[in-house]
Design goal:
The structure holds three protein chains of three kinds. By secondary structure, chain A is of the alpha/beta class. Chain A is built from nine helices and ten strands. In chain A, the strands form two sheets. Chain A has a six-stranded mixed beta sheet with strand order 6-7-8-3-9-10, sandwiched between helices. Chain C is an all-alpha fold. Chain C has a single domain, classed as ABC transporter involved in vitamin B12 uptake, BtuC (Orthogonal Bundle). Chain C contains twelve helices and two strands; from the N terminus they run H-H-H-H-H-E-E-H-H-H-H-H-H-H. A two-stranded antiparallel ribbon of chain C has the order 1-2. The chains are: A alpha/beta, B mainly alpha, C mainly alpha.
Chain lengths: 248, 349, 301
């Protein structure tokens, strides 16, 4: 349980003169749900981007299942089993939902020989059952670009599950979603974690959501790690409260 | 199943009979299949993958030169042959002609695919308009290189050997090449139709819709983009040689690397019919080709001005094309509908 | 090719002569490139018809000089003014319909216009290679081992005057400020009361005028031909991607550099490969810059 699936040690990243992340160390144990919070501009998304290979880091190491990945590029890291979803949800707009799901199948075993084959029927079945899991089954033949923002968010989540990741980095999974639906999302995230065994590392702005979801939470402010601990502990941490209320 | 079998059957029969019934139009009909091939192979990048290439003509021209050079080179020295342009010494007998054509097309395909693979990973790293202009430059650069290369006749071009009289039992030059283009277009159509339905096809679409997302999901985008270019290069290079022989003269800028005619037409035909569909390029090519022939017949001297106007009109007023318009108008006919048999869920607002 | 390469070192005067010729031609290329950068920066359009506008400017000079007998130099401002109105017309007929569209649409549309202009020029002026005779001589130095063509020098002066005028116009005039505001953020400019449609029309017309003046110089210093336009488009594009948008100094340096590089290349590999060199150079620079960016896991945008 305590094997670190993702081990971030001393990571720094600056853009020009602006320091976005400074000496950040985070452990995400296998099978856990770990949270990452912090006020706007505190460097959460930058950290995510560093981890999944969107840009090179200036210092530090990032280990995934013990393997150093900070030199690898996005698709290679994704094929190792670490996926991320986007804050500005990204789906394939001109394709229908089923196709969005099918092309999200894992690409680890893809070769020049099998790339021209068709999808096996199991893939379609799995795609449809995952669409059912997120409640989009009836809309499976609609173009993804025509779905509402919330539906696209659910689709992106289902696509990520389709890829059978070991760890999923979620960037604000409930942002922009109708508050009455948030419980449904929390429930599905928990089920993905428990039933499918996917480790989750979640950026979230909504304190109620993250307190409900995560077992351990890290808090960033001004690019630095401010505090970490279980939700109950962090809730009462004066530094965290100040960062949220005092910083603005 | 039955419906589409009938449809394909009718088109097939029409394709086989057309040059016999309209014997005076064999060349134009051959060009029609070539145009369909152009539009189909362009759409593999432009429509399916979202990479608008202005340089696919490169593979066509390359194939044309390679094929002619092999055909001539099996019997003569190419440099001597081009220097003596058009003299009697350039004749081949039937066997030499056909062997040269077959080997030449094979070599053209190999060279075309090799070039696509070699430069593909570099130039396909460019995106959007940088890719468009980069490929445009590449196509024209190749034309200029061949136009300066004395060995293949430089700017004055290369005349492939004439179609031998002893092969007239095949129905004559025009009919012979008509069936080659017909076969190439049909093979290209079914090959592309098959791969668009495969994992590869969906990967192309994913790259078109959001390449960054596709990478984030672990797709090997560089490999997929390069393979897609190789597929187009394969068919274009194959088609180049026969066209050079049908026309009987290879001008580096006007026939082989004809960027401002064939090169831009392939884009236009695919857009006119509807990018990103299998039938769009076919329909677009057919309409475009007929219009083009009409311009040649009635606007001689001004036909290219009319083509330019047509380009602007299509692009400005009809960028979604015929298939795109049909799809926008009747989305449910294309399968885009809500499955009413399933209860609507509250969670999916 | 190797002989020529060695010659550059054995006879330094050849090397210097090539450099001078290249730089003098490069100045005109820089002028056309600045126009392209203007349209690209303000309207987000890559103007494929750029080269045809240059060639058309050349034909205006040629026609006026032949018909009225005035010295071609006096036709430079006339070509610019005529091209201003032609550019305005092109904007009103086509460009304003594609200015907010995807860049691919505007590339195709301007490509279409370029084909129309090529063919029209072919019909009207004929397909022959032409140039205007200015009657100027050359200055010779070192026993004529190095010559300086007077018309090349005059055209360099004209380019400098025009460039200065342009920079001042964009900096000082009311329209210039509106153009720069639109380039930064068209929506914000619109909200602040700038008539962006008028700005676009003026920008495009201004670019056509710049091209017209450049073409007028090209026909006096070099040659024109109805189908030479695309090479000028690609040269402009090449200069802009090296220099960046809205950077007059960069454009001039890149333009002079391209002129010199072309001149050396055609000396070394033969004049028949000059155009191929320009096009390949563009492709190589694009790919090279993209590879550099990909080290930071970015790409050309």
């Amino acid at each position: 349980m305590s094997t670190p699936m993702l081990e971030i040690t001393g990571v720094s990243k600056a853009f020009g003169g602006v320091i976005a992340n400074e000496d950040i160390s985070i452990n995400v144990p296998e099978g856990s749900i770990t949270g990452l919070i912090g006020p706007n501009g505190s460097g959460k998304t930058t950290l995510f981007n560093s981890v999944v290979g969107y840009h090179p880091i200036d210092a530090g190491t990032i280990k995934f299942e013990g393997q150093e990945i900070s030199k690898l590029r996005v698709p290679e890291i994704a094929r190792l089993g670490m996926l991320r979803t986007f804050q500005q949800t990204r789906i394939y707009g001109e394709m229908d939902c089923v196709k969005n799901m099918l092309i999200s199948m894992p690409h680890r075993d893809e070769s020049l020989m099998n790339i021209f084959t068709n999808f096996p029927p199991e893939a379609t079945e799995k795609a449809e059952s995952l669409l059912e899991f997120v409640g989009l089954f009836s809309k499976r033949y609609l173009l993804a670009g025509e779905l509402s923002f919330g539906q696209q968010k659910l689709l992106e989540f289902a696509m990520a599950l389709m890829n059978e990741p070991k760890i999923l980095l979620l960037d604000e999974p409930t942002a922009g979603i109708n508050p009455t639906l948030i419980n449904g999302i929390i429930d599905r995230l928990k089920r993905a974690n428990e039933q499918l065994g996917i480790t989750l590392f979640v950026i979230e702005h909504n304190m109620r959501v993250i307190m409900n979801l995560a077992e351990h939470i890290y808090c960033l402010a001004h690019g630095q790690l401010l505090a970490d601990g279980p939700p109950e502990e962090l809730q009462d941490n004066q530094l965290v409260i100040d960062a949220y209320l005092g910083a603005h | 199943m039955n419906n589409s079998m009938i449809k394909y059957g009718l088109i097939g029969i029409a394709g086989i009979l057309a040059p016999i019934v309209f014997a005076n139009f064999q060349v134009q009909l051959g060009f029609l299949w070539l145009m369909i091939l152009f539009a189909l192979t362009w759409d593999t990048q432009g429509g399916q993958m979202g990479y608008n290439s202005f340089g696919n003509i490169l593979f066509f021209g390359l194939g044309m030169y390679v094929c002619a050079m092999v055909q001539v080179g099996l019997v003569y020295d190419v440099g001597v042959y081009t220097a003596a342009a058009g003299l009697d010494s350039g004749k081949l007998n039937g066997e030499q002609y056909l062997t040269g054509l077959a080997l030449g097309m094979g070599a053209a395909a190999v060279v075309g695919v090799a070039v696509a693979a070699l430069i593909g990973s570099g130039i396909l790293g460019l995106r959007g308009h940088y890719f468009a202009i980069g490929t445009l430059g590449l196509g024209i650069a190749f034309g200029e290189i061949f136009a300066g290369w004395d060995y293949v006749g430089a700017g004055s071009g290369l005349a492939p050997p004439p179609f031998p009289d002893e092969l007239d039992f095949l129905g004559g030059r025009n009919l012979f090449f008509y069936y080659i283009f017909f076969a190439l277009a049909v093979i290209a159509f079914f090959t592309l139709k098959k791969i668009y339905a495969s994992r590869f096809g969906l990967a192309l679409n994913a790259i078109r819709d959001d390449e960054d997302k596709a990478e984030a999901m672990g797709l090997r985008t560089v490999r997929i983009k390069t393979i897609s270019w190789c597929v187009s290069a394969f068919f274009l290079a194959l088609a180049g040689g026969p066209l050079g022989m049908l026309v009987g003269f290879i001008d580096p800028r006007e026939t082989a690397f004809a960027g401002v005619t064939f090169g831009i037409w392939m884009v236009l035909m695919a857009i006119l019919g509807g990018k990103g569909t299998i039938w769009g390029p076919v329909i677009g090519a057919a309409i475009f080709h007929v219009t083009q022939e009409f311009f040649w017949s009635f606007l001689l001297g001004w036909q290219r001005v009319a083509m330019g106007v047509l380009i602007v009109v299509i692009v400005v007023f009809f960028p979604r094309g015929i298939m795109g318009w049909l799809r926008d108008t009747w989305p449910d006919r294309f399968g885009e509908k809500v499955d009413e048999s399933v209860p609507q869920e509250g969670a999916a607002q | 090719m190797i002989d020529n390469f060695l010659l550059l070192f054995q006879a330094p005067t050849v090397a210097v002569q090539t450099l001078i010729d290249g730089i003098l031609i490069g100045a005109i290329l820089a002028l056309a490139a600045y126009g392209m950068a203007l349209v690209w920066g303000v309207m987000n359009i890559i103007n494929i018809v750029q080269g045809e506008l240059v060639i058309l400017g050349g034909y205006i000079t040629l026609t006026l000089a032949n018909m009225t007998g005035i010295h071609p130099l006096w036709t430079v401002p006339i070509a610019a003014v005529v091209m201003y109105f032609i550019g305005y017309g092109i904007y009103k007929i086509v460009i304003h319909r594609v200015v907010d569209e995807d860049m691919f649409i505007s590339i195709l549309a301007t490509f279409g216009i370029s084909i129309i202009l090529q063919q029209l020029m072919d019909q009207v002026f004929g397909a022959d290679i032409q140039s205007a005779d200015t009657g100027f001589d050359s200055w010779g130095y070192l026993d004529d081992a190095i010559t300086l063509s007077q018309i090349h020098v005059i055209s360099l002066v004209i380019v400098i005057v025009l460039a200065t005028f342009l920079v001042l116009y964009l900096k000082r005039s009311k329209m210039g400020r509106a153009i720069r505001a639109t380039a930064q953020d068209a929506r914000a400019a619109r909200i602040m009361g700038v008539d962006t449609d008028h700005v676009y029309a003026t920008t495009y017309a201004l670019n056509a005028a710049i091209c017209g003046a450049a073409g007028s110089l090209v026909v006096m210093t070099w040659i024109i031909h109805p189908f030479l336009g695309l090479a000028y488009t690609v040269r402009s594009f090449l200069i802009v991607i090296v220099a960046g948008l809205g950077n007059m100094v960069g454009v001039i340096i890149a333009g002079l550099g391209l002129g010199a590089a072309e001149q050396y290349a055609s000396f070394l590999i033969g004049i028949e490969f000059r155009v191929a060199f320009v096009f390949l150079l563009m492709v190589v620079i694009l790919i090279w810059r993209n590879i550099l960016l990909s080290k930071e896991r970015r790409y050309l945008k």
